[in-house]
């Protein structure tokens, strides 16, 4: 028995067994880069409103909006200075109400970002803390420490450099000499003190406020980081969260390795009390309100602890994202996830891209031993775009065939690659500066979307302004270029999402069927889901006819279903090309060799 399942025995029964999010396809909107209606080069809420039809046609169940709150934008909005409003460049509360109404009318739910680990240093509480001085109640809402011999401990910021900021240079007050405050991210993102009751009350008020405005769920940022180990002991992994591990790239650009989020700053048992508290609040003010954890914890078992019956609803499945193009690892992650989440009665989730990682249309083109995250720069080896896109389409189709809930990141439905040649001067991610340009950062996956084939900014902004540069040829990925085009990535996503719903795959299960190494073949209800990660075509005989393929049938004689209308259709042969995936209508009798779970 796993530790997860033994913990679950004392839990109350789940009341959310029919909740909408259990099989939902949830589409992440990064508002800054989605669409810019007012022409200032920054995406906005009105821009999202103008493309609700795109979301409806795609068929998603919900959208998750990355932060839109007032913010100095040191970390693209993950540095919040007011939790109860919108940044003027994104719109007003009324604009958001209008968007929520539009989406609800279209049957699409709305999830927003909740950033509880830290605020912006411009938040009124932090301003008050600096002004009030050492030992004040205002300072107790954050993590201030005194130390006479350098930083209070050896922790490093996840964005590079130390995690402690000396206070005296900020305030200019001599009484602040040898005082520091903690920031796991940028110095402009001071960490909250979750032992302080006012911090708890602030976030309970946050939840109530947004649910009353019609919000259907919350994505909890850095969910594994809020509570730190008692006494703030040193981190055994040392102060440098980004290790240089040697040269890569032809001109010797440095290769780096990100340390895992383990140690005294992460995944402390006390975080779970916070989510229990929030669950009680949400159950009071709403029904089936989604809470999804962004918890970069090492194992599926640890992630499953966040979704016990009295805590969150879902946790992002980062092991699935990291598994890459490795069939055995994907299968392991799927099995363990279904077991661990299943043991606590929660659905598994699946994700391949988001605003923090290299887009999977580029990431999957690299050899497994190349650590690309987060970001690829012009001096790094460049991906093979065609290979990356073929694998991305296959990986997504495979993912959408799995039971549970799936997350999509804006632009992946267009097959968008990472911008891998962005010039250094354009970069805005604090990682770039804070790692002394060792890590390119996440700007390459945050480039403004193309909506039209031509024109300045390809339809993103009426004035053609863009807060990050778009690469050449971006318009070929636009919905305008792909609309109605058989075999386009946009059409593939739409069809797959519609079929997924029709065939209730999100509510199904996984039964592995025998397949050669490098090939994954599973049954979910009457649907066969196949992924070929090998470099040769794989012939599947007598299993069933293809329902949808990640490859364009005209590009390849991959699908041979026998003569149309022929009774032999039921025992058709499918040839899955390398880097391909498909779904099959399983024929009875073709299922020998199964490995039931
Ligand atoms: C999360 C966000 C990331 C942000 C960080 C700090 O990991 O996804 O974008 O930089 O938290 O808030």
CATH topology of the largest domain: TIM Barrel
- The mean pLDDT is 92
Unreliable runs, pLDDT <50, ≥5 residues? 1-8, 556-568, 590-597
Q: CATH superfamily of the largest domain, called what?
A: Glycosidases
Q: What is the strand content?
A: 15-25%
The Rg value, from CA coordinates, equals: 24 Å
- Helix residue percentage: 10-25%
The rounded distance between the terminal residues' Cα atoms is 16 Å
3D shape: globular
Count of DSSP strands: 21
Largest sheet, order of strands side by side?
11-10-7-3-2-1-13-12
Discrete helix count: 17
Quickly count the domains.
3
User: Which class best fits the helix and strand makeup?
Assistant: alpha/beta
Level-1 CATH class name of the largest domain: Alpha Beta
Largest sheet: 8 strands, parallel
The molecules bound to the chains, other than polymers, are: alpha-D-glucopyranose
CATH architecture grouping of the largest domain: Alpha-Beta Barrel
Family: Belongs to the glycosyl hydrolase 13 family.
InterPro entries: GH, GH13_cat_dom, O16G_dom_2
Keywords: Glycosidase, Hydrolase
Organism: Actinomyces viscosus
């Amino acid at each position: 028995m796993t530790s997860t399942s033994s913990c679950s025995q004392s839990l109350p029964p789940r009341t959310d067994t029919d909740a909408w999010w259990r099989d939902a396809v949830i589409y992440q909107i990064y508002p800054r880069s989605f669409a810019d209606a007012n022409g200032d080069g920054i995406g906005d809420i009105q821009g999202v409103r103008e493309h609700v039809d795109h979301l409806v046609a795609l068929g998603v169940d919900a959208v998750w909006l990355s932060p839109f709150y007032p913010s100095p934008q040191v970390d693209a909005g993950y540095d919040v200075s007011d939790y109860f409003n919108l940044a003027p460049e994104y719109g007003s509360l009324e604009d958001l109400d209008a968007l929520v109404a539009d989406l609800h009318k279209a049957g699409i739910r709305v999830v927003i970002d909740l950033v509880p680990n830290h605020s912006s240093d411009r938040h009124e509480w932090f301003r008050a803390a600096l002004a009030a001085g050492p030992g004040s109640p205002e300072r107790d809402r954050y993590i201030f420490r005194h130390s006479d011999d350098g930083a209070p401990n050896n922790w490093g910021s996840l964005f590079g450099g130390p995690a402690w900021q000396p206070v005296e240079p900020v305030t200019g007050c001599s009484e602040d000499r040898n005082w520091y405050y903690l920031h796991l991210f940028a110095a402009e993102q001071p960490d909250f003190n979750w032992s302080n009751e006012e911090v708890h009350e602030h976030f309970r008020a946050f939840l109530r406020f947004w649910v009353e405005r019609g919000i259907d769920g919350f994505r909890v940022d850095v969910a594994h980081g809020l509570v730190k180990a008692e006494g703030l002991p040193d981190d055994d992994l040392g102060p440098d969260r980004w290790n240089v591990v040697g040269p890569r790239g032809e001109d010797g650009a440095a290769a780096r390795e990100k340390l895992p989020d383990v140690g005294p700053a992460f995944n402390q048992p006390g975080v779970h009390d916070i989510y229990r508290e929030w669950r009680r609040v949400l159950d009071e003010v709403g029904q089936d309100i989604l809470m999804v954890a962004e918890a970069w914890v090492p194992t599926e078992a640890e992630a499953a602890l966040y979704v016990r019956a009295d805590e969150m609803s879902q946790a992002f499945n980062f092991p699935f994202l990291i598994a890459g193009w490795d069939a055995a690892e994907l299968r392991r992650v799927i099995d363990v996830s279904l077991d661990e989440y299943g043991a606590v009665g929660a659905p598994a989730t699946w994700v391949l891209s988001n605003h923090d990682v290299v887009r999977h249309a580029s990431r999957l083109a690299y050899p497994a031993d190349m650590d690309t995250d987060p970001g690829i720069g012009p001096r790094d080896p460049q991906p093979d775009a065609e290979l990356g896109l073929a694998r991305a389409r296959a990986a997504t189709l495979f993912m959408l065939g799995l039971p549970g809930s799936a997350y999509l990141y804006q632009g992946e439905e267009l097959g968008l690659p990472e911008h891998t040649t962005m010039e250094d001067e354009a970069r805005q991610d604090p990682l770039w500066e804070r790692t002394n340009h060792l890590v390119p950062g996440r700007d390459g996956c945050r480039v403004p979307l193309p909506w039209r084939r031509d024109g300045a900014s390809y339809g993103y902004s009426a004035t053609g302004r863009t807060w990050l540069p778009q690469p050449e040829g971006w318009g070929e990925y636009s919905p305008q270029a792909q609309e109605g085009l058989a075999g386009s990535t946009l059409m593939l996503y739409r069809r797959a999402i519609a079929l997924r719903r029709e065939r209730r795959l999100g509510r199904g299960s996984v039964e592995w069927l025998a397949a050669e190494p490098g090939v994954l073949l599973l049954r979910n209800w009457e649907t066969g889901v196949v992924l070929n990660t090998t470099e040769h075509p794989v012939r599947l005989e007598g299993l069933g006819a293809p329902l949808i393929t990640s490859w364009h049938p005209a590009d390849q004689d991959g699908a041979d279903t026998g003569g149309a209308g022929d009774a032999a259709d039921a025992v058709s042969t499918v040839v899955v090309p390398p880097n391909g995936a498909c779904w099959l209508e399983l024929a009875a009798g073709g299922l020998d060799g199964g490995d039931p779970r």
